[in-house]
Structure of 5-carboxymethyl-2-hydroxymuconate semialdehyde dehydrogenase:
Amino acid sequence: MITTDEKVSLKHETQKNISLYINGEFTSAVSGKTFKNMNPFTNEQINEVAEGQSDDIDKAVAAAREAFDNGPWKTMKLKERMAYIYRIADLIDEEIEKIAFLEALDTGLPISQTRNMVSRASENFRFYARMVENRLVGEAYQVDDEFINYTIHSPVGVAGLITPWNAPFMLETWKVAPALATGNTVVLKPAELSPLSANLLAEVIHKANLPRGVFNVVHGYGETAGDALVRHPDVQLISFTGETKTGSTIIKNSADTLKSCSMELGGKSPIIVFEDADFDRALDACVWGIYSFNGERCTANSRLFLQEGIKEKFIEALKIRVAAIKIGDPLDAETEVGPLIDKGHYNKVKGYLEIAKGEGAEVLTGDIPAEFVRGNFVAPTLILNAENSMRVAQEEIFGPVLTVMTFKDEDEVIKLANDIDYGLAGYVWTNDIKRGHRVAHKIEAGMLWVNAQNVRDLRTPFGGSKSSGIGREGGHYGFDFYTELKVIHVSIEEHRIQQFGKK
Ligand code: NAD
């Protein structure tokens, strides 16, 4: 656990300005421009960040291209490359407290939660090292006695990785780990609202002494730096996590250079609680699932469907729990909900509370203590008497706001749950085992949990259907995205070959 003195020195350290990391060096942007990085708890400036634009993306891609084409990264022995990956994981573990602290400072996420995210980050590297060691195998096809065909996996090239601010370090490593372990080189464009931990990742990777150009970070805005990465002809793939609208823009803009794209997008996931569910556990999971990570969570269970028989009891219990959630300084270990990432997002979330009232729903929200008014705080909120057609039931609010609805029976709730554009996750609570499976099968989403909160084994596929994404990350699905599959056909007999033009 970090001491008060260490906190002071870390705060001091964050006042250093943040550079880009290109070709193994920390550097300013070509234009010399910077942008301000703000603290969501105080709305004071933390530091200045180098503002990368298309010139910087060109430099980073050129470095990554050179490292891919002529460097040792993709050709070195697997054991040697994996030693780098394990080393990155160890170095992250050594820095857990520091990274968790800076992540909480930069994003407003409570430190008790950023700690878990960071330990997950080092596991991402170990997991993908093991995955590559065990899964870098091909298939062989015997074709009569004439051919042996076999497959091999090769790295794809330069991977462009674009990440959001809501769980920055974890999500960056979730992409960087498989991309590097499989032998690609990387240009990472982190979210402009949360640059601190991406910079730490560059420091960690620098310390791990990866060959120059293998890993590069270009900070900057999406419409400039992000867009230049998406359009760059020397970038082979884009792995993107962020809003659905941005994902759609990226697919359009990457079309001319025909990139493969993995899209992890927004969500508005249902949690369905049947009358026979384990009431207390469903309540715990529901409250955690929407109010953890300040509600800025893609898989948040933001739409609650309660079966009519338990509606009153559940809502009463929810009101008590939600009113007691501890909001506060994200650096305080006791804090359960911190401030939202920035004023723009705060206004958006607050705007939805007005929309809810305008639509005729009841909004139950708490007051923010005077000592916290400088921060972007929205108190944990319940929207009651809502209907599925309302905007607050259909659109991603991405804050600590739960929209509550009711249903009569299984058929009705399946229709309601599926009557939405998104399809990322879903949660079903019932003690009828057949019904649990049945409903999970029928909900249109990429990931379902039955009688469980969002616990994930890294081997399982992660991603959404409908407007929530294209493709899957995690497990061997990530591995498949970052490798090119090639089949080699070898003749072992004298098979017939046509003899055009032979007299
Ligand atoms: P965002 O789409 O605004 O930004 C994400 C990243 O894209 C940022 O780095 C941004 O700079 C960049 N970007 C923006 N416009 C771009 C463009 N035209 N070209 C290239 N890059 C561009 O998303 P956000 O507000 O940072 O993150 C919140 C969203 O992310 C929510 O919708 C949330 O559900 C989603 N999310 C999804 C998952 C998932 O796995 N499905 C996980 C976390 C967050």
Observations:
- The mean pLDDT is 96.
